[in-house]
Amino acid sequence: MGHQDNTADRLLALTRAMWTGASDGEWERVIELEAERRTVMDGLFPVGATAPASERTEAAMREVLDMDKRTMELLEQQHGEVGRQLRELASRRKARAAYAANSP
Hints:
The chain is an all-alpha fold. The chain has helices at residues 3-23, 27-44, 55-102.
């Protein structure tokens, strides 16, 4: 196994950990892992590199892209839920304010 394959395996492991964190709603952990993953990815595809990727690296990258897509879908769902909760909170605040303004 070459350096490229080892790096691709590390990238895939980080991506899987990000997916687990996203699935568990641990978004701060996802952000931490993404920063580490970015460094690994820069090492996997250095600027100016011309060597073709191995089959193993290509397979790892396909899985990384698939997991990234699923993670983004989870993020969008979570974002929608947070937005709904914020709207509900704002509605409650308005109701309380109206009640307080009309109370004797």
